[in-house]
Amino acid sequence: MNYTYWQWAILMAVLIPSSITDIKTRKISYWLITGSLPCAVMLHTLLNGVPHFFEYFARFYPGIAILIVAHLTKECIGYGDGIICLFLGSVLNVGVVLMIILLAFIFAALFGAIMMCFGKMKAKSKLPFVPFILLGVLICGFL
Fold this sequence. Notes:
This protein is mostly helical. It has one domain (5-142). It has helices at 5-25, 30-48, 53-58, 61-72, 79-91, 94-117, 130-142. Helix 1 (5-25) runs antiparallel to helix 2, helix 1 packs antiparallel against helix 7 (130-142) and helix 2 (30-48) runs parallel beside helix 5. It is globular, with a radius of gyration of 15 Å.
């Protein structure tokens, strides 16, 4: 899936700083995401026209599902990760968002397994997830 230039620009402008702050502080900047969200929605509407309501709303299902899982598991996966997935839904189609999330989970699991094998992590250790989402976005962008 090749992204357009505006999709690359918006995705990288949000995901790179969010990945850095997630690694350093285990938090993300909600101001960055909420500030970028209207820009993403407006650009998508200007370039692709006004989507059907249910089609556009379906793009947010993966993010909503992650927010529900975050609530039910008392933040085993953070609310910030769900907010990032909601942001992805405003820029990309639901199929691409699902592929990105799947790749992010696979890479996070592989990274965690490797780190546990080397004794650097324990099973209950927490990983920053946004860098794996960024990795999924990059891989899907080059497919």
